[in-house]
Amino acid sequence: MDKKVLLSELKFKAVRSSGAGGQNVNKVSSKVVLSFDLGNSLGLTHDEKELLLTKIATKLTQENILILTSEEDRSQLKNKEVVVKKFLKVIENGLKIPKERKETRIPRAVKEKRLSTKKVIGLLKQNRKKPNF
């Protein structure tokens, strides 16, 4: 993964933010929409693309374009910085390969403790019965 190449491939678009905010919202385009074409990216290897296609499939469009938005701040520049950080985080998390889980044995002491508590509970239930003379 080459971050410089990836950042050069990003496309930004400024849009009016939605929701409450008074007159400023109606005049200023502070929301930033980032789009990244995963299929035609030169900053990722073929294997990395395949891994990302499976890992972040829910975030991609049908044309394999990743679209992220940010409208947290009133400043377009700050929203652009936030959305770039969000993009890098999504890509890095998508490229992480999880560690394989090693199967562990259940310790003998744990098995014995479970069996002894079962015996105690069984005896309690048996003592509730009417005596058989």
**DSSP strand (E) fraction?**
5-15%
**Unreliable runs, pLDDT <50, ≥5 residues?**
none
What is the averaged pLDDT score?
88
Order of helices and strands: HEHEHEHH
Approximate helicity band: 40-55%
Count of extended strands: 3
Question: How would you explain this protein's 3D organization?
Answer:
There is one protein chain. By secondary structure, this protein is an alpha+beta fold. The chain has one domain (1-133): Double Stranded RNA Binding Domain (2-Layer Sandwich). The chain has helices at 3-8, 23-27, 46-55, 76-95, 108-127; strands spanning 11-15, 31-37, 65-70. The protein has a three-stranded antiparallel beta sheet, covered by helices on one side. The longest helix has 20 residues, at 76-95. It is elongated, with a radius of gyration of 28 Å. The mean pLDDT is 88.
